[in-house]
Amino acid sequence: MKKISFYKGRLAFWYLIIIGFSLSYTPALANYSLKNNLAVTQQHQVQGTITDGTNPLPGVTIAIKGKRNTTTISDFNGQYTLAVAGTDTLTVSFMGFKTALVLINGRKLVNIQLHEDITSLQEVRVNTGYYSVKESERTGSIAKITAAAIEKQPVTNVLATMQGRMAGVNISQATGMPGGGFSIEIRGQNSLRLDGNNPLYVIDGVPYSSQDIGSTYTSGNLPGQNSPLNSINPNDIASIEVLKDADATAIYGSRGANGVVLITTKKGKVGTTTFTTNYSNGLGQVAHFMHLMDTPQYLSMRREAFANDGVTRYPSSAYDVNGTWDQNRTTNWQKQLLGGTANYTNLQSSLSGGSQHTQYLLSGNYSKETTVFPGDFEYSKGSGHFNLNHESDNEIFKVNFTAGYTVQRNNLPSIDFTRDAITLVPNAPSLYDAMGNLNWENNTFNNPLAKLEGKIKGQTQDLITNILLSYDLGAGFIAKTSFGYTDLQQNQKTVLPSTSYNPAYGLGSEVSALFSNTIHRKSWIAEPQLNWNHAVGKLKMETLAGATFQQQNSDQLVSAAEGFANNSLIENPASAAHYLILNSDETVYKYQAFFGRINLNWHGKYLLNGTGRRDGSSRFGPGRQFATFGALGAAWLFSNETFVKDKLRFLSFGKIRASYGTTGNDQIGDYQYLDTYGTSGNTYQGISGLQPSRLFNPDFGWETNKKLELALETGFWNDRIFTTVAWYRNRSSSQLVGIPLPGTTGFSELQANLDAEVQNSGIEISIRTVNFQSKKFSWISNFNLTHIKNELLSFPGLEGSTYKNQYVIGQPINIVKMYHYTGLHPTSGIYQFEDFNGDGNLSAADDKKSIQNLSPNYYGGFQNQLRYGNVQLDFLFQFVKQLNFNENYRMGMPGTMINQPEAVTAHWQSAGDSGPYQSYSNSNAQKRAANIRYTQSDAAIGDASYIRLKNVSISFDLPQKWTKKLLCKLSLQGQNLLTISPYKGLDPEFISSGYLPPLRVISSSLQVTF
Predict the structure, then answer these.
(1) What own/partner pairs with CB < 8 Å and gap ≥ 24 does 317-325 have?
(2) From CA 901, how far away is CA 903, in angstroms rounded?
(3) Which of 463, 657, 682, 812 has the fewest beta carbons under 10 Å from its own?
(4) What CATH fold (topology level) applies to the domain 34-113?
């Protein structure tokens, strides 16, 4: 057998030599045999320039139709060269443009103009994490935005880029402070736990924890200030996909219960080496101030209040009216404390390029923000991003490596002045004395700027890296393995020196304090996968099987130090007289799963997609650690039916899709099922003792979310009008909450699965229209609208539990129970409320029965993109219909030494007055009690609906005849420019009272590419 094999191989070898010899003389033989057709078949060089009608397009792929491995890429100037035959046809393709087929016809110079592909949505591929699918063939609900929308927004948090742009995704800003966080809800609140509604974030295939990394001891009173998502640079993002329904999220199992946010960073592209840098600078200010009383109005209120109380001689502490303070002085404290200008600076540079088989991208970013508060405070961030793609010459083996590293530094005040700016009386003394020192006005004035001595100092370092290996096994099989690693470290301090107190108190560094929070969180994940794609006749089948192995280790140390010999030593805990460990935790979270998918496509008309996942989590006890989740999605592309093509030619696309499945939730923290112990803080014979902190519950298990969706997608007139209408219903049961226990047990609650069920249902509408399209001018609009209804379906034993004052069956879970305000008493002018049980007494337990729903009724956005030649205008209107706490919430009693909204001047003075505010008082107990109930009544809830011009971007591409070899773009961008709302507070988006609202930001930028 070896001998026969040898001779066969030797014969083949001689055949190769003969063929090679013949091929080396191909021109001569061709000249001899095809003398008359030389121009048609002989290879020659064709060259030309590829443009979009105005500018050259680098990185365009030019291939010969029907011939593999005969491609080239246009260079920086859009020029290309390729060896072709006279009868060949060029296939010219570039992302975002329609593919062009160009006949050579013997030409040597072929210039090509590509046209933007703004209507063919069906061919766009969307990422689902473990696989990608064409828009026309997806069976799940996925919303997407790309870098084109992200780069037009002067923001630093990735969630800000999504506001108003996605149906079913509700995002609100927590604070206008630099580096502030955002909250996100995907199709409503599923869990009764406030921290149980976060989606899963996946960055380039690596799950990224959304758990807060801060501490109440070191974050001051700044909400959302420790969001780990601040580490992600928006300028590095290529696209964001949000997975919403069961078909899209079930493959993530327990982690996809509240939706999945997939963040894909930018990758290297084929083409010549290109360097791009973008510098932007902007200004930010508070967009709207409240209308508060001026000095004459305020003093009139104060004097009337004392008169109503029968006080004829003002107390010595009433500095505002007894003559101690200047009664002709008027200060707008909102402008004094919040009226500064924040500066925004951002520098982004990248280097990219590569051949057909290897591409790379290296980018760096630096950004800095200051505050609108007095003082020198800033938040800065620097990041680096690297990507490398490589494939073998035979395109069998592929590797993709991505790494990102971010360093954040903040030096921010430990206090937010917003509450002071609203309540400080208008004739209060100036902030500084004649010598430029803080003014205490002879110890009659608590100067708010003294709080600026307290600072929050922090540094966060974050590494995210991932490598994906892929190998084509042949016969439709592809093996993949993904490895990811994250490492986050934060060191945050709150410094409270003695200089923040009035010097008259005589306090020294012995009262100075330092709070420190050190956290280190690292995780790794490995996901082997096997894909198999196969076609049999009209049936195409895609299958996927894989496993996930993940581990996260976290440790946190929170400490307090007090009493220093000198304030210069305050950041050194070893110099403190007293040092206390407030919290010391070390946790390990382990997760493993097996998942699979099968997708069937029959003749491009009928689609069936099944996904499943078997999850295991260390957060549950033995016997409860594993659970199975899955979903089934189906779609009918009825526009591909012959009868539709013949009869409804105006319909370019039509699809009906449906999905149903289950996902889980384990967002409860670690070791919640165990009986755990903590340090008691007490010592016995010098040894610190332990005390039980949690009871053991072996039946603690998974929260379950059942999702159902029906949707219709249609495109008209070549998709110039494209619509999506979806109805969904999510039901979440086995709620992971604490069940209250009697005090005699020694524990306040037991972690368990509460037999309660929450439902979210709603309708989502998305419309995209190409209003006008020509060579020079185009106008595209995008509209989305979400109507949502949240409801507590069941809660056995609710009336007998401590939750009875918080929830109502049949009502949303985001409600507040309040007193029902009925008006003013006609003779006393005091607020009146409904006595629901008729016992003659008002109590919170029995009479807070007015239910107010704070969840949005509907929300959405309206985006437009207009392009004329080299100029492009983009703008987005965001709108929300909702109720929220109004200016009466947490309002001090009118008449006391606190400023009031200007509307309070309309108050009761004599019998018959309608108010609406009660008569002024400074000390009347009955009026004080009524005012407290008033702030806790439905009178403190108002219409907080708004329409906001969320974003505007104008850009101009300089003609290349001006810039020669440079590509230059000038841009002007604005954020939160205009808000139309009946709301009387600082900002209708803002729920938290007493915090800085989102700022109005205007920035300009210059982008240069060469």
Answers:
(1) 318/897, 319/441, 319/444, 319/445, 320/425, 320/427, 320/428, 320/897, 324/444, 325/427, 325/428, 325/429, 325/441, 325/444, 325/445
(2) 5
(3) 682
(4) Immunoglobulin-like (2.60.40)
Of the CA atoms within 13 Å of residue 660, those in its CB half-sphere come to: 0
Determine contact, residues 349/321, Cβ cutoff 8 Å: no
378-391 vs 967-980, strand pairing mode: unpaired
Rounded mean pLDDT, 54-59: 74
Other residues' Cβ atoms within 10 Å of the Cβ of residue 398: 17
Burial of 781 (0-12, 13-18, 19+ CB in 10 A): middle
Contact (Cβ atoms closer than 8 angstroms) between residue 532 and residue 254: no
**Using the 8-state DSSP alphabet, how is residue 454 labeled?**
S
Rounded to a whole number of angstroms, the distance between the first and last alpha carbons of the chain is 62
Indicate left, alpha or beta for 477 from its phi (over 0: left) and psi (-120 to 50: alpha). beta
Q: What size, in residues, is the chain?
A: 1010
Q: Is 606 left (phi over 0), alpha (psi -120 to 50) or beta?
A: beta
Amino acid identity at 122: Q
Question: d(Cα 35, Cα 23) in Å, to the nearest integer?
Answer: 17
**pLDDT > 90 fraction of the chain, expressed in percent and rounded:** 57
Q: How many angstroms separate the CA atoms of 441 and 431, rounded?
A: 9
Helix boundaries (H) for 626-693: 642-647
C-alpha–C-alpha distance, residues 823 and 916, integer Å: 8
Pairing of strands 112-113, 44-51: parallel
CA–CA distance, 867 with 778 (Å, rounded to integer): 5
- 417: which 2 tokens? 């002045």
Tell me the three state secondary structure of residue 449. Answer: helix
Q: Is the pLDDT of residue 26 over 50?
A: no
Question: Dihedral sign, CA of 664, 669, 670, 672?
Answer: negative
Among residues 923, 890, 926, 927, which one has the least CA distance to residue 318?
923
Count of helices and strands (H, E) across the chain = 12, 48
The distance from CA 534 to its chain's CA centroid, rounded to whole angstroms, is 38
* Segment 687-692 mean pLDDT: 76
Cα distances (angstroms) measured from residue 63 to each of 93, 274, 516, 728: 9, 22, 60, 44
CA 584 to centroid of chain Cα atoms: 30
Distance between CA 483 and CA 478 in Å, rounded? 17
Cα(667)–Cα(857) distance, rounded to whole angstroms?
27
Flag whether pLDDT at 496 surpasses 50. Answer: yes
Whose tokens are 């801060």? That residue is: 214
Residue type, 322: N
Phi-psi region of 838 (alpha: psi -120 to 50; beta: other; left: phi over 0): left
- The domain ranges of the chain are 34-113
Question: How confident is the model at residue 38, as a pLDDT?
Answer: 42
Q: What is the bridge-based pairing of β-strands 260-265 and 200-203? A: parallel
Helices of type H across 220-373: 246-249, 295-308, 333-338
φ/ψ bin of 746: left (φ > 0), alpha (ψ from -120 to 50), beta (otherwise): left
Q: What is the mean pLDDT of residues 262-270?
A: 89
CB 911 within 8 A of CB 793: no
497-536 residue pLDDT tens: 999 999 888 899 999 999 999 999 999 999 999 999 999 9
> In terms of Cα–Cα distance, which of 841, 1003, 990, 965 is closest to 79?
965
Tokens at residue 925, please?
């107990």
Tokens coding 715: 């495109």
The one-letter amino acid at 809: I
For 530-595, the three-class secondary structure string (H helix, E strand, C coil) is EEEEEEECCEEEEEEEEEEEEEEEEEEEEEEEEEECCHHHCCCHHHEEEEEEEEEEEEEEEEEEEE
Tokens of 112: 């090509």
Longest dimension (CA), the chain: 125
Q: Could you identify the residue written with the tokens 């907080």? A: 944
Answer yes or no: are the C-beta atoms of 382 and 366 closer than 8 Å: yes
Assess whether pLDDT exceeds 80 at residue 37.
no
| Calpha distance 891→293 (Å, rounded) | 14
